[in-house]
Amino acid sequence: MFKYLFLAAALGLAGLTPLHAQTLPITGITEPYLDVTLGLADAGIIRNQYFKEGDRVKQGDVILELDKNLEKLEVQRRKAIMDQDKMIHDSTRELSETTKSVSQEDLIKAESDYEVATADYQIAVQQLADRQLVAPFSGAITEVLLKPGAAVAPYQPLVRLVDVSRCYFVGHIDGTAASQFRLDQPVKIAVEGGQTVEGKVCYISPVVDAASGLARIKVIFDNQGGEIRPGLAARLTAE
Q1: How far is it, in rounded angstroms, from Cα 87 to Cα 81?
Q2: Least confident of 114-123, 154-163, 189-198
Q3: How many other CB atoms are found less than 10 A from the CB of residue 93?
Q4: Which of 3, 85, 119, 156 is deepest in the core (most CB within 10 A)?
Q5: 52 close to 144: Cβ distance less than 8 angstroms
Q6: Bigger pLDDT: 164 or 179?
């Protein structure tokens, strides 16, 4: 009798233990805000490399480019055709409006030829631009996989670019305790090495992994000074 009373009391006390105390701190890893490996859709030979590993680039900077002599010549050829068709189009339209000596069919053909030539020129310009690997966002180059002179296949990885101006803490919490967090909740992240930063919860998984019983949680925090190097282990604690 007393044994069962003691067990019931113990279970009752366990139920009164704050959920917060059971689940914190949460261990996890820090990750960069953006981390992508860049490539090109075209094949070719790398001719120029303008940035090296460790360099910072701005969005729109050309990191490297393939050989593009043929593409340059094609742009020039298409522009010459477009300019000629424009001249024919303009003169045909002028004659049609002033002297009425040009048939409607000839005017339509001149307009169509000019539109096709313009589209061909724009395609050639885009094909020339596609020979350059352009930074899609501002960040730091952490790896250059091929150097000038190397042959490149379509979509082959060439450069790894990361943005560490902001970072994520990614961890896992017991699914039954996930409800204690809310989006935009202020929290603190203790990073390996002794640094502590403040962040906000930006993601709580709506599902729990059936195998582990854990839910994924993400916290975003500012890292403009670059003090935190993503990849370090960290712990999350609520403020």
Answers
A1: 10
A2: 189-198
A3: 15
A4: 85
A5: yes
A6: 164
pLDDT tens for 36-81 read 999 999 999 999 999 999 999 999 999 999 999 999 999 999 999 9
Superfamily for the 17-34+163-238 domain: Efflux pump adaptor protein, beta barrel domain (2.40.30.170)
Alpha helices by DSSP H, the chain: 2-15, 19-23, 69-98, 104-129
Whether residue 236 contacts residue 217, with contact meaning beta carbons closer than 8 Å, is answered with yes
SS3 at position 144: strand
Single pTM value for the model: 0.77
**pLDDT for residue 13 is more than 50:** no
Residues in the chain: 239
In 14-53, which positions are buried (b, 16+ CB within 10 angstroms) versus exposed (e)?
eeeeeeeeebbebebebbbbeebebbbeeebebeebebee
Task: Give the phi and the psi of residue 104 in degrees, each rounded to 5.
Answer: -65, -35
CATH for 37-65+132-160?
2.40.50.100
